[in-house]
Structure formats: structure tokens, C-alpha cells
Amino acid sequence: MPMIALILIVLVALLHLYFLVLEMFLWTQPLGMKTFRNTREKAETTRVLAANQGLYNGFLAAGLLYAVITSSHEFALFFLACVVVAGLYGAWSVNKRIFFIQALPALLALVALQV
User: Fold this and answer.
1) Which domain holds residue 48?
2) pLDDT, tens digit (0-9, with 9 covering 90-100), for 40-83
3) Nearest C-alpha neighbor of 12 from the set 69, 84, 70
4) CB atoms < 10 A from the CB of 77, how many?
5) Cβ–Cβ under 8 Å, residues 64 and 13
6) Residue 47: which residues within 8 A CB-CB, separation 6 or more?
7) pTM for the complete prediction?
8) Number of domains the chain contains
9) Maximal CA-CA distance, the chain
């Protein structure tokens, strides 16, 4: 795996670990509410859903880190593709900026992986 691909994959994994922390632990805290533009009431109401979403982000991060540790091209492709699909869906259904925050870094890692 090219070094740039490894670096980008680790960065995507770190992003998803950050998403996990935001969604599982900081959702109802000021940083979480500001990041996701939630009110206190909305954050409390959706807390369990956000925690579930955070857990899935953790699984994506774990898969990407496993790919790096084992140098598995196939795992990297699979988990990066999952991130891209999740980012595209989020951009379409929630906010266009999700494309740039989530999907674009994974797309760049996919391109680097193919070099």
C-alpha cells in the first residue's frame, strides 16, 4: 500500500473515531450540540439514535485501522467504499457539507490506494 494511502486511511479512521466521540459522548454537550446544530431538547430526544450512529462510525474506523495494520488492500477498499456511501447519503439526506467532511477524504484515500 502506498504511504500516502496509509496516511489518508488513518486520517479517515481518526475522523470516524472523532465522530464516534461526538455522537456517543458529546451529543448533548455544548460541542456536540454546536457541531450538529441541535437544541438541548432535540439533542436529548435523539441521544440514543446518535449513540447508535456513533457506534457505526467506530466500526468504520476499526475496519480502516485493521486494513492499515494488516496491509489489506481489500479491507481498505471495502471500508473506504462504505465511508463514501455513508458520506454521499448524508450529503443527500442531511447536509451537503457532509460530502466534504466524510466522503471526500475517503475518495482521496481510494484514489491514493489505486496509485
Assistant:
1) 3-114
2) 999 999 999 999 999 999 999 999 999 999 999 999 999 999 99
3) 84
4) 15
5) yes
6) 27, 28
7) 0.92
8) 1
9) 47
Confidence at 1, pLDDT banded by 50, 70, 90: confident
Long-range Cβ pairs for the range 50-56 (8 Å, 24+): 50/23, 50/24, 51/23, 51/24, 51/27, 53/23, 54/19, 54/20, 54/21, 54/22, 54/23, 54/24, 54/25, 54/27, 55/20, 55/24
Contact 114, 2 (CB under 8 A): no
Q: Between vectors from CA 2 to CA 86 and to CA 80, what angle results, nearest 5°?
A: 10
